[in-house]
Each structure stands twice: as C-alpha cells, then as structure tokens.
Design brief:
A four-stranded mixed β-sheet has the order 1-2-4-3. 42% of the residues lie in helices and 19% in strands. The chain contains seven helices and four strands; from the N terminus they run E-H-E-H-H-E-H-H-H-H-E. Helix 2 packs parallel to helix 4 and helix 4 runs antiparallel to helix 6. It has 180 residues and is α+β, with helices and mostly antiparallel strands.
Length: 180
C-alpha cells in the first residue's frame, strides 16, 4: 500500500488492472480530480470498485452526528446516487453494475452518534479516531440482535430489501474502456 495525498498517486499510468476506492471520495476536496487520477493509473479494461456513503444514510446522520462529522477531514461531500454515477462516467469509466448495502451500519452509526450525544461525548478531528472499541452496550446489543436476525433462513430477502431501503454505502463497479 501507499500513503499519499492522492494527486498524483505514486503509481505509473496505465499500470493497474484493478482499482479500489472504498469510502474515500466523500473526504477529498476535489472528487472529480481524484477520480481522474484513479482512471490515469488503470490499464485499458481495468476494473474499478468504487463506494461512497449513500445519501439516505448520510442525511439521516446529519441530524444526529456532531457537525464536525461533515467537515474536513471527515465527510465533506454527500453524493446523490445519480451524481455519483455522473462523476464516474464523467471521469471516462463505463458503469458495469450499481448496488447498495449496509443497512446494519446505517443503524449502527445512528445509534453510535445518539449514544455519544446522550453520554456527552463530542467529536473533534477525524471520525475514525472516535469510532473505536470499546463500544457502548447499546451497539453491542444491536450487533447481537442483527446477528440473530440474519441467521434466520428467511432473513436474506429482508436484508436485501433493507440494504436497498436504508443503505450505508452505494457501490459502482466500473471498467476503463479498452480504447480512449
């Protein structure tokens, strides 16, 4: 792995057959420039796995999470679904598939923010520094309940519906065209 400010990436042009950017675009100042840089390093035909938080979950959290969660270095962009797709195609990629997932995590994060607020815990700096164990008992209870639910044979269709209704993330699998 590389640690980089991403523009430019310390990787040769057209050298990667697979590019993964999970939950990054919402943090960068210029998402279009960052995505162009990801396209630069992909070979013709390269596959891209791209994910950003879903706007439904983000907009719910805006009412619960402390304001700094939506300030640098945290989530400074909320991408509507079609906006995310336009960003990907605008960078020159072809969308192969779109999906959404993570109902469990949308609820988990809402409970996390609400629990912190009720316990008088604020947020300063990067959210990932705050979201660490030990977790409040309510979050452990939610995880245990969800685990019991998804163990049921009938749970898979329900989980699919909930992931579409209230997803944590939206995902695009894209391909760099063979010819530019």
């Amino acid at each position: 792995g590389f640690v980089s400010d991403s523009i430019p990436l310390p990787v040769a042009a057209a050298s990667m057959s697979r590019v993964i950017s999970m939950e990054v675009l919402e943090h960068v100042e210029d998402p279009a420039a960052f995505l162009r840089e990801l396209v630069r390093v992909g070979q013709p035909g390269a596959l891209y796995l791209l994910a950003v938080p879903d706007p439904v979950g983000e907009n719910i959290q805006k009412h619960i999470a402390p304001a700094p969660h939506f300030e640098p270095p945290n989530h400074i962009h909320i991408f509507e679904r079609e906006e995310f797709a336009r960003l990907v195609t605008g960078a020159g990629l072809e969308i192969v598939r779109r999906d959404a997932y993570g109902f469990f995590w949308t609820i988990w994060m809402c409970l996390f923010w609400a629990t912190n607020k009720s316990n008088g815990i604020g947020l300063e700096g990067a959210s990932h520094d705050l979201v660490q164990p030990p977790y409040p008992p309510l979050l452990n209870d939610w995880a245990k309940l969800w685990h019991q639910i998804i163990k049921m044979p009938e749970a898979a269709p329900m989980k699919q519906v909930l992931d579409q209704l209230l997803p944590k993330s939206q995902v695009i699998i894209a391909r760099k065209p063979e010819r530019s």
